[in-house]
From TrEMBL:
CDD domains to which the protein is assigned, alphabetical: TrHb1_N (cd00454)
A Pfam cross-reference name: Bac_globin
Transmembrane segments: none
Native source organism of the sequence: Novosphingobium capsulatum
SUPFAM superfamilies assigned to the protein according to its UniProt record, in alphabetical order: Globin-like
Extent of the signal sequence: 1-18
Organism classification: Bacteria, Pseudomonadati, Pseudomonadota, Alphaproteobacteria, Sphingomonadales
Keywords of this entry: Heme, Iron, Metal-binding, Signal, Transport
Descriptive protein name: Hemoglobin
Length: 159
């Protein structure tokens, strides 16, 4: 299921820009071109605000450290700093009252050579952590759809 979701998100990935005009309104896209979370979805509240996101990231990081596909990347990294920046990043994505002061995804993952398999493993562990916190499936889906386009800057980033 997660693979299908990600595949849908990856296909929907587009550079951040205004939604292109619909030339023929009869042609309905399968996915939104830009997987943007709108303010009125109240996703930040659904995830339990800053407290909820912090607990989610604590759990997710433990899972990334336990998973052989993600562990090598995080084992010797500054885990507390990454968690803090992920909370801020997700908070901003969900229109929460935060500022993201980390690097761009391209910069942060440069030269790391993250494979597609490791990327999927990270998202799958995140999904397990979200399930544990009883985040509704639809809300999970919205977050993953917002994260999926980032794969372009993260996977096989050898720059
Ligand atoms: C959509 C998926 C991902 C998101 C949203 C994400 C987000 C972030 C953020 C916000 C940071 C901190 C930025 C900074 O250091 O200024 C970061 C750093 C990092 N990420 Fe990711 N990441 C993703 C995927 C991955 C994957 C798949 C891996 C490896 C399996 C990974 C490994 C790392 C590591 C090791 C750092 C620390 C880099 C350093 O300290 O120099 N990330 N990521």
């Amino acid at each position: 299921m997660i693979t299908m979701l990600l595949a849908a998100g990856l296909m929907a990935a587009q550079p951040a820009a205004a939604e292109p005009p619909v030339a023929d309104p009869a042609v309905k896209p399968h996915y939104p071109t830009l997987p943007v979370i709108t303010q009125n979805e109240h996703l930040y509240e659904t995830f339990g605000g800053k407290e909820g996101l912090t607990a989610l990231m604590d759990d997710a990081m433990n899972r990334w450290l336990a998973n052989p596909r993600t562990r090598p990347f995080f084992a010797n990294a500054d885990q507390a700093r990454i968690k803090d920046l992920l909370v801020k990043q997700f908070c901003v994505i969900m229109h929460g009252p935060c500022t993201y002061d980390g690097r761009t995804m391209a910069e942060a993952h440069r030269g790391m050579n993250v494979s597609e398999g490791s990327f999927y493993a990270l998202v799958e562990e995140l999904q397990v952590a979200m399930n544990k916190r009883h985040i509704p499936f639809n809300a999970q889906n919205r977050l993953i759809a917002a994260l999926a386009p980032m794969h372009r800057d993260i996977i096989n980033n050898t720059k």
